[in-house]
Q: What sequence folds into this?
């Protein structure tokens, strides 16, 4: 046999073998194409044009690509006829209604079984302009030293993030209710803050990244705090000592760093025991011959002998511990950096750290201090002490 004939014979067998493999692949392939969509994320929020690229690969070959938006065809069986491909396309959201939509991608291979891969991507369109406005018509907010400033503003649509900036502090803004576009922030004012007028800024970002700013003014008003001289030799309450003891202060830093970004309460706070008398007001200047001067960051409540102490609002037990000076302590995280404190408890209930509690859940018992059943109660916002009694008043 001549070399040329032999070469043609071998080539023919190779072609038949390759053709046989292709035929077998055509009839037996069960593997769907591998596909990836870039430029969109599941449950993403978009405005304007969305530039996307669909890529894919199949061991036999890709036959066609189809795109559907909310069940309606955008692209019908676009021919590919290659093993791998990249298909760029643009979705113009200006033509879509605001709200939720679903993009469906169907990629079919060219085998006998017509194997297909499907992607369904829910997403949201938000082309509404971002507008912010104060709920109140007041041009200047007023707040006393040691109190909490509660501000509310309305947004034209749901926000991705919002922050209140006041006196070098940043405080989270969150929805008053899940179904409302009214946002609120709780801003603490220190008891020794200098009375004056200060700027307040709300900086908001919507879910597509558009930024907005709302400006206001706050007048900090001097408060007539009382003073008290503590008796020589008497045990002081946590409130009378003024600043928290260092170990407790360090533990609370961790509590605030881990505070849940969820509003766990609704409505007003409640006094955490049956109050017969409020022994010490928030911000009282306490003088002790042994300990010197301190300003009360808590309030002392006089209750019933061995009376129950309960959670003043819904939250999570973030700290349950006994300290050398402050005794048995419970800290409840109510979300967004708002924490209530219960110090000098006579005993704990069976609750443990991490437990969810509702308003009125018993967390401990009173003990006698200086012959009277009492304990110290406080609220801190972003680790700044404020008057807890204000949080129980109507209109706050």
A:
């Amino acid at each position: 046999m001549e070399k040329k004939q032999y070469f043609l014979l071998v080539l023919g067998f190779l072609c038949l073998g390759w053709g046989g493999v292709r035929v077998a692949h055509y009839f037996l392939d069960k593997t769907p194409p591998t596909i990836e969509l870039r430029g969109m994320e599941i449950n993403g929020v978009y405005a304007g044009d969305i530039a996307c690229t669909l890529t894919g690969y199949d061991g036999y070959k890709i036959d066609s690509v189809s795109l559907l938006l909310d069940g309606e065809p955008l692209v019908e069986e676009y021919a590919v006829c290659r093993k791998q491909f990249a298909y760029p396309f643009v979705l113009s959201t200006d033509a879509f209604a605001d709200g939720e939509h679903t993009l469906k991608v169907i990629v079919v291979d060219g085998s006998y079984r017509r194997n297909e891969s499907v992607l369904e991507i829910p997403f949201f369109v938000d082309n509404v302009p971002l507008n912010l406005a104060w709920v109140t018509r007041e041009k200047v907010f007023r707040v006393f030293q040691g109190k909490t400033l509660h501000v509310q503003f309305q947004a034209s649509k749901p926000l991705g993030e919002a922050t209140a900036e006041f006196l070098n502090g940043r405080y989270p803004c969150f929805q008053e209710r899940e179904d409302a576009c009214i946002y609120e922030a709780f801003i603490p004012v220190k008891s020794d803050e200098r009375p004056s007028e200060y700027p307040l800024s709300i900086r908001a970002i919507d879910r597509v990244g558009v930024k907005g700013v709302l400006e206001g003014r706050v007048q900090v008003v001097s408060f007539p705090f009382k003073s008290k001289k503590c008796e020589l030799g008497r045990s002081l309450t946590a409130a009378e000592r003024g600043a928290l003891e260092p170990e407790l202060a360090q533990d609370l830093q961790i509590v605030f760093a881990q505070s849940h970004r969820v509003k766990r309460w609704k409505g007003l706070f409640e006094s955490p025991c049956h109050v017969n008398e409020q022994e010490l007001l928030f911000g009282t200047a306490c003088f002790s011959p042994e300990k010197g001067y301190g300003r009360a960051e808590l309030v002392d409540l006089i209750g019933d002998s061995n009376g129950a102490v309960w959670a003043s609002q819904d939250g999570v037990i973030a700290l349950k511990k006994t300290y050398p000076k402050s005794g048995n302590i419970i800290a409840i995280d109510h979300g967004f950096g708002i924490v209530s404190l219960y110090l000098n408890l006579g005993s704990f209930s069976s609750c443990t750290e991490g437990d969810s509690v509702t308003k009125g859940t018993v967390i401990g018992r009173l003990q006698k201090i200086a012959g009277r059943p009492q304990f110290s109660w406080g609220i801190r916002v972003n680790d700044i002490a404020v008057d807890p009694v204000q949080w129980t008043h109507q209109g706050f």
User: Anything to note?
Assistant: The chain has two helices and 30 strands.
